[in-house]
Amino acid sequence: MAGMLKTIGFKIPQSCLLCQQPADALICHYCQTDLPVLALSQCDYNLLNWPKIKSGLQQVAYDSLLVSTEYCWPWDKLLTALKFNQRTLCAKALAEQFYRIALTHNGKRPEVILPMPLHYKRYAKRKYNQTMEIAKHLSALSGIALDDQLCQRSKATQAQTQLSGAQRRKNLRDAFRLSSSPAYQHVAIFDDIIATGSTVNSLSKALKKAKPSLHIEVWAIAISLSPGTSN
């Protein structure tokens, strides 16, 4: 039916993913206005300049951090629907909001986006990588290339949720490998949610080991500096 309506020129009605009202966008203007976001301009679009954030992260091995929001409603609704219910429209909505909030300033852009890889066993169980789904839309919006081949998850790590900081670091030791030495000078690692930052830190260390001069930004939709929300 949807294909038939498109063929004969009808526009299929679309509803906002949050308020369910008719809208021209996946998240309507009114809901966008109400979204809680981080004041990125106040920290020069690098959350490592914000002591509250920096103090909650562990052994930062990357150069800057860019996140849309703290982990809260309604962002958690969209992230959970994508991650566990395969609501892939949420990936596009999340990418659009990250781009609007975090990437419309005039800062220097990375050459490439590196989506957080998923181990093949977890991929086989979920059937898709929710971070990759968001990153694909973000690449299209920003015009920044996407490289999903350079970084690979070589270790099937235990779920991070109930682990302490020390346990998380041990769990992620040697969890990533690279298919080759990075050919880039400036990259952005993209993940959906950051808790302690152990996962992005582990991948950053693998990249820096291969190329110490590499400038690494970390991008994420949400940050939660308490256990219970990381992948």
UniProtKB/TrEMBL annotation:
InterPro entries: ComF/GntX_DNA_util-trans, PRTase-like, PRTase_dom
Similarity comment: Belongs to the ComF/GntX family.
UniProt cross-references to PANTHER family, sorted A to Z: DNA UTILIZATION PROTEIN YHGH
Protein name per the record: ComF family protein
